[in-house]
Amino acid sequence: MSRNTADADEVYAKRAAADVVFPPMTRYVLRQDWLSFGDDYTIRDAEGRDVYVVDGRVLSLGDKLSFQDLQGRELAFISQRLLAWGPTYEISRDGQVVALVKKSVFTFFRCEFTVDVPGPDDLVAEGDFWEHEYQFTRGGRAVASVSKRFFSWTDTYGVETTPEVDDVLILASAVVIDLCCHAKGR
User: Fold this and answer.
1) Phi-psi region of 139 (alpha: psi -120 to 50; beta: other; left: phi over 0)
2) Whole-angstrom Cα distance, residue 172 to residue 185?
3) Domain extent listing, the chain
């Protein structure tokens, strides 16, 4: 047996002995509606049922999107800050800003977004944004992931969240990242 195989076996044995319990992930499918005016998205659960819609305003100065449940109640509002250093979006609830999503401007060789929320619970999104393969982390620990790996359709990707994060905030942040990295016709 090679040294690498022995090392890998030892790592797996330690993980198994630790009785690591992984929390159940909530899964969504986020799909941009390509036959729409504005930036519209449909969000489905793991069973394929529509759970949220994102309605983009057509004629507005900067991006403005309403994140809604299926009854049309606004759960969050996404608006682009026009006078900012780099792409910056506000996510609001009931008229109060709950997060500021900003693309880091001075990162060489990689791309990074911060989701600045009140208090110490900021999120960082890192990975391959062009290919829709990235993670949201909080304090260095992964709390959500975005992947296009299992979807061949354009502008469709999966989002998985852990129980301790706000799903609407993660999904709205994923929409913002899509707007920044895959802006059609801009």
Assistant:
1) left
2) 21
3) 25-181
**Architecture, CATH, for domain 25-181:** Beta Barrel (2.40)
pLDDT (tens digit per residue) in 123-174:
999 988 777 789 999 998 999 999 887 666 567 888 999 998 999 999 999 9
Tell me, what DSSP letter sits at residue 107? -
Q: CA 101, CA 172: separation in Å to the nearest integer?
A: 10
DSSP code of residue 46: T
Structure token digits, residue 147: 């992947």
**DSSP state letter for 64:** E
Return the DSSP state at 173: H
pLDDT in tens, 166-177: 999 999 999 998
Provide the greatest CA pair distance for the chain. 65
